[in-house]
Amino acid sequence: MERTLEQIEQEIAGTKAALENVQGSETEVYARIVGYYRAVKNWNKGKSDEFKHRKMFSIEDSKLYDITEADTTCACEKKPAQVEKTVENLEAVTYEMFTRKTCPNCPPVKDFMANLDMAGRSIDVDTEEGLAEAAKKGIFASPTVIFYSKEGIETARCHNVEELEAVFNKVAVL
Hints:
single chain, alpha+beta, 4-stranded mixed sheet, two-stranded antiparallel sheet, 6 helices, 6 strands, 17% strand, elongated
């Protein structure tokens, strides 16, 4: 049985009317706070305000992502390179690594960064100077590694080995 144009238009109008009256339910958001996950609505005022200031980093959404402008070949046409090869192409890139002595997530990030032949520095946020520098740069968690282009522009911000590997794999296919 075929529908007429009038029947289809009535169905579309009915669907649009139904979409205008969609009623959802409250979504409970969980985030990590002081080492464990907890519903954000149960956080105290200070932690709730901190959560509102957090920025989620995504390589794909970063406007400063392309640090190798010279090559415009589609990434799908290339084979991924190893991190060692990528590092050779990133001699002008530097980093700052913000860590704490008691941080359980810092040692793997330190090990990853130690294996790279890249200029950078480690900043201990347990010191007053380190904490002040972290506050200036909007760092709320350790470990945090910030990468800078040769012009001194922030190009990436990572918090764990998986994010670091994603950055280097992404850079490697450019």
